[in-house]
Amino acid sequence: MRRSQKESLSIKLRRATVWDIPRIVGIERKVFPKPWGWDAFLSELLKPYSRVLVAHVEGKLVGYCVLWLFPPEAYIANIAVEPSYQGMGVGTALMEKVEEICRDEGISSITLEVRASNRVAQSLYRKFGFEVVGVRRAMYHDGEDGLVMEKLI
């Protein structure tokens, strides 16, 4: 499915359930070279501090986010969008929901890590006011650095 970026998608967001895990893992495998597995996502659903959000377009799960809440701080542990839906506002919708949850929970800062080479993701995070506050040298399995980004709310 390819739509023009100007065409508006109807994106619906909700908390994930165990029934969403196979589709989440499918997206995870398409997006990341070292993907989380089924057990990792099940574990996230069971953690009291974890919120797993999913994004649907026309009934199809096309994105997800794992958010950890440790008031007054939050951490985006994982976020991904189905490649054929990237650049269509799904990531933006997920980030807007993350901010809403954080405001509701009294969070004052959100952090995340992103590959130094992932300019598309960095652009999304900067759009939401995130700034690079550190570098984790050779953070990824292939030796690539990770940028630590933070937003104060």
Description:
This protein has four helices and seven strands. It has helices at 21-31, 38-46, 90-104, 119-127; strands spanning 11-15, 50-57, 60-70, 73-81, 109-115, 131-136, 146-152. Strand 2 and strand 3 form a beta hairpin. 31% of the residues are buried. The chain is an alpha+beta fold and 153 residues long. The chain has a single domain (11-152), classed as Aminopeptidase (3-Layer(aba) Sandwich). It has a seven-stranded mixed beta sheet with strand order 1-2-3-4-5-7-6, with helices on both faces. The chain is globular, with a radius of gyration of 15 Å.
Features:
153 residues, alpha+beta, Aminopeptidase, 4 helices, 29% helix, 35% strand, disordered N terminus
Class per helix and strand makeup: alpha+beta
CATH homology group: Gcn5-related N-acetyltransferase (GNAT)
Number of strand elements: 7
CATH C-level category: Alpha Beta
Widest sheet: strand order?
A: 1-2-3-4-5-7-6
Sheet having the most strands: 7 strands, mixed
User: What oligomeric state is this?
Assistant: single chain
Instruction: Tell me the count of domains.
Output: 1
Reported by name, the CATH topology is: Aminopeptidase
Helix run count: 4
Q: Mind telling me the C-alpha Rg?
A: 15 Å
Distance between the termini: 35 Å
CATH 2nd-level architecture = 3-Layer(aba) Sandwich
Q: Would you identify the regions where 5 or more consecutive residues have pLDDT less than 50?
A: 1-6
**SSE pattern:** EHHEEEHEHEE
The fraction of residues in strands falls at: 25-35%
The mean pLDDT is 94
Coarse shape:
globular
